[in-house]
Amino acid sequence: MYTGAPWWSFWPLAAWGVVFAVHFLVHKSRTVDESWIEERTADLHSKSYDAGHIDRIVADQRGNAADRETK
Asked: Looking at the 3D structure of the chain, how many domains does it have?
């Protein structure tokens, strides 16, 4: 491509890029489970600059869920 040759080399690279992206997405969707979600959530929570705000939101949501269950 860089030598001025025809663009024939672009199409095989583009096709392999699409195949690789699909493979990655399928693999990632099959390996995500509840434990991964919990680990990722805890990691993001620990890196949060405003964890107190997040804790208040979670507490409010738990309170709202409890209110809905009693109704």
From this structure: 2
Alpha carbon distance 22, 56 (integer Å): 38
CA distances from 16 to 3, 19, 29, 43 (A): 21, 5, 20, 33
| Structure tokens, 28 | 């990632």
What is the domain extent for residue 24? 1-31
Domain identity same for 48 and 68: yes
- pTM, 2 dp: 0.45
pLDDT in tens, 14-50: 999 999 999 999 998 888 888 888 898 888 877 777 7
Instruction: With CA atoms as reference, report the closest residue to 40 among 28, 32, 29, 50.
Output: 32
